[in-house]
Amino acid sequence: MYAEGGVPITGGAAAFGVSPTLLRARSALSLGACGPLDDKTFKDDATVKDKITAVRMDGETDGFRVRGKKGLAKAAVHREVNYQGKSKPDDRTYHVEDGVLVLEGCSGDYAVEVPAGTPVTGSTEAGGLSLSSVG
To answer: pTM of the prediction?
Structure first.
Protein backbone atom coordinates (compact mmCIF):
# COMPACT_ATOMS: atom_id res chain seq x y z
CA MET A 1 0.00 0.00 0.00
CA TYR A 2 1.26 3.49 -0.80
CA ALA A 3 0.47 6.86 0.73
CA GLU A 4 0.21 10.15 -1.12
CA GLY A 5 3.44 10.83 -3.02
CA GLY A 6 4.27 7.15 -3.51
CA VAL A 7 5.73 6.55 -0.04
CA PRO A 8 5.17 2.92 1.00
CA ILE A 9 3.12 2.25 4.13
CA THR A 10 4.37 -0.93 5.78
CA GLY A 11 3.64 -2.83 8.94
CA GLY A 12 -0.06 -3.40 8.49
CA ALA A 13 -1.48 0.14 8.46
CA ALA A 14 -4.42 -0.93 6.33
CA ALA A 15 -5.12 -3.92 8.59
CA PHE A 16 -5.62 -1.55 11.50
CA GLY A 17 -7.80 0.95 9.65
CA VAL A 18 -5.19 3.70 9.33
CA SER A 19 -6.11 5.80 6.34
CA PRO A 20 -3.35 6.94 3.98
CA THR A 21 -5.07 10.32 3.83
CA LEU A 22 -4.58 10.68 7.58
CA LEU A 23 -0.93 9.83 7.11
CA ARG A 24 -0.14 12.31 4.38
CA ALA A 25 3.38 11.07 3.82
CA ARG A 26 5.02 13.08 1.07
CA SER A 27 8.52 12.81 -0.30
CA ALA A 28 10.45 16.06 -0.36
CA LEU A 29 14.06 17.13 -0.47
CA SER A 30 15.03 18.95 2.72
CA LEU A 31 17.89 21.41 2.76
CA GLY A 32 19.53 23.57 5.39
CA ALA A 33 19.30 22.41 9.01
CA CYS A 34 17.28 19.36 7.97
CA GLY A 35 19.24 18.04 5.11
CA PRO A 36 22.03 16.09 3.57
CA LEU A 37 24.76 18.25 5.15
CA ASP A 38 24.18 16.76 8.62
CA ASP A 39 27.33 14.82 9.43
CA LYS A 40 26.93 13.63 13.04
CA THR A 41 24.39 11.43 14.80
CA PHE A 42 23.40 10.82 18.40
CA LYS A 43 20.94 8.30 19.81
CA ASP A 44 18.79 8.40 22.91
CA ASP A 45 15.95 6.51 24.55
CA ALA A 46 13.18 7.69 26.85
CA THR A 47 10.11 6.33 28.56
CA VAL A 48 7.19 8.75 28.27
CA LYS A 49 5.86 9.40 31.77
CA ASP A 50 2.43 10.67 30.69
CA LYS A 51 -0.41 8.38 29.64
CA ILE A 52 -0.59 8.28 25.84
CA THR A 53 -3.98 8.11 24.10
CA ALA A 54 -2.76 8.84 20.53
CA VAL A 55 0.34 9.62 18.46
CA ARG A 56 0.73 12.48 15.97
CA MET A 57 3.65 12.66 13.54
CA ASP A 58 4.56 16.18 12.51
CA GLY A 59 7.93 16.67 10.94
CA GLU A 60 10.51 16.34 8.22
CA THR A 61 12.22 13.42 9.87
CA ASP A 62 14.04 10.59 8.12
CA GLY A 63 11.56 8.01 9.33
CA PHE A 64 8.81 7.06 11.76
CA ARG A 65 8.32 3.52 13.05
CA VAL A 66 5.40 3.20 15.47
CA ARG A 67 4.68 -0.22 16.94
CA GLY A 68 1.81 -1.14 19.21
CA LYS A 69 2.65 -3.62 21.93
CA LYS A 70 0.03 -5.54 23.89
CA GLY A 71 0.22 -4.98 27.65
CA LEU A 72 2.59 -2.00 27.39
CA ALA A 73 1.93 0.52 30.18
CA LYS A 74 4.18 3.40 29.09
CA ALA A 75 5.23 4.59 25.65
CA ALA A 76 8.93 4.43 24.76
CA VAL A 77 10.76 6.65 22.27
CA HIS A 78 14.09 5.83 20.63
CA ARG A 79 15.48 8.47 18.33
CA GLU A 80 18.55 8.93 16.18
CA VAL A 81 19.16 12.60 15.45
CA ASN A 82 21.48 13.89 12.73
CA TYR A 83 23.08 17.29 13.19
CA GLN A 84 25.83 19.65 12.08
CA GLY A 85 28.48 21.41 14.13
CA LYS A 86 30.44 20.62 17.26
CA SER A 87 27.66 20.21 19.81
CA LYS A 88 24.57 18.07 19.58
CA PRO A 89 21.19 19.79 19.86
CA ASP A 90 19.69 19.53 23.34
CA ASP A 91 16.09 20.38 22.51
CA ARG A 92 13.36 17.75 22.65
CA THR A 93 11.79 16.70 19.40
CA TYR A 94 8.71 15.16 21.00
CA HIS A 95 6.23 16.16 23.71
CA VAL A 96 2.81 15.25 25.07
CA GLU A 97 -0.25 17.49 24.46
CA ASP A 98 -3.44 16.39 26.24
CA GLY A 99 -2.43 12.73 26.05
CA VAL A 100 -1.20 12.91 22.43
CA LEU A 101 2.47 12.04 21.88
CA VAL A 102 3.63 14.56 19.27
CA LEU A 103 6.72 13.53 17.28
CA GLU A 104 8.34 16.41 15.43
CA GLY A 105 11.64 17.72 14.19
CA CYS A 106 13.86 16.90 11.28
CA SER A 107 17.00 14.99 10.38
CA GLY A 108 16.27 12.05 12.57
CA ASP A 109 14.62 8.70 12.92
CA TYR A 110 12.01 7.61 15.48
CA ALA A 111 11.22 4.11 16.74
CA VAL A 112 8.27 4.34 19.13
CA GLU A 113 6.45 1.68 21.14
CA VAL A 114 2.93 2.45 22.36
CA PRO A 115 0.10 0.35 23.79
CA ALA A 116 -1.48 -1.78 21.04
CA GLY A 117 -4.38 -0.09 19.25
CA THR A 118 -3.18 3.48 19.91
CA PRO A 119 -4.46 5.78 17.11
CA VAL A 120 -1.76 7.34 14.88
CA THR A 121 -2.24 10.43 12.68
CA GLY A 122 -0.07 13.10 11.09
CA SER A 123 2.31 13.63 8.24
CA THR A 124 5.95 13.61 7.28
CA GLU A 125 7.66 15.64 4.59
CA ALA A 126 10.43 13.09 4.03
CA GLY A 127 11.48 9.61 5.04
CA GLY A 128 9.76 6.30 5.58
CA LEU A 129 6.77 5.24 7.61
CA SER A 130 6.15 1.92 9.31
CA LEU A 131 3.13 1.13 11.50
CA SER A 132 2.17 -2.08 13.25
CA SER A 133 -0.52 -3.02 15.77
CA VAL A 134 -1.83 0.54 16.05
CA GLY A 135 -5.40 1.80 15.65
So the answer is: 0.70
